[in-house]
Amino acid sequence: MSSHHIVRENQEPALFIADPHCLQEGYLHQLLEWSPTIITLAQHYEHLQSLQIKVDVLLAKEEVSGMDLEEHLQVVSYGDSSPTAALFTYLHSKNNYAVNILTNDEQISPYIPFLSDFTIILLNDGGKHLLVRKYEKWLPKGFVLGIAGVEDITDLENLDAISDGKFTVRADGFVRITEQPHYFRITEEL
């Protein structure tokens, strides 16, 4: 008996490559195995082509000229708005409400307007950064989590502080942080 993976459109989170150099190539290729919609900025298109990564959507400040663009490529111009706003407008138009973003910028603030509608995960060599209001996940003893964005979180279950913003899982089992009034960032090791 063989096993087949059928991936429906928008079933997997889109992959926005804001910085193609922020994640080891091996991990990037693991993300690509699931055939996500790949979105990037115009300045990274040729580099991704050199890595033989098929880009689906190109975000460009102005009209793209002088580049050898693939036939299937959709170009989204964002003009005076931000590439972040253009990204989420595009994803919304495709009914895709989950995105992994390759970036070294781990700030929550650019994503606050979109977090109520989208699941956003930031990825880089520093870890997997989830932007959430609550957190619950089974983790092994000794696993290290970073928590940033809400300094007054007090209800941490199965976690011990090891330094400012760093926590270790006390015992194999669920880690829980109850719902907070504001979004915060949880960083998991890759």
Note down, in words, how this protein is organized.
The chain is mainly beta. The protein contains 3 helices and 14 strands. It has helices at 25-32, 45-50, 83-93; strands spanning 14-17, 38-41, 57-60, 74-77, 98-102, 119-124, 127-132, 135-139, 144-148, 156-157, 159-163, 166-169, 173-177, 184-188. Helix 2 (45-50) links the parallel strand 2 (38-41) and strand 3 (57-60). The longest helix has 11 residues, at 83-93. It is elongated and about 55 Å long. It starts with 13 loop residues before the first strand and ends with a strand. The model is unreliable at 1-7 (pLDDT under 50).
Provide a concise account of the structure shown.
The chain has 3 helices and 14 strands.
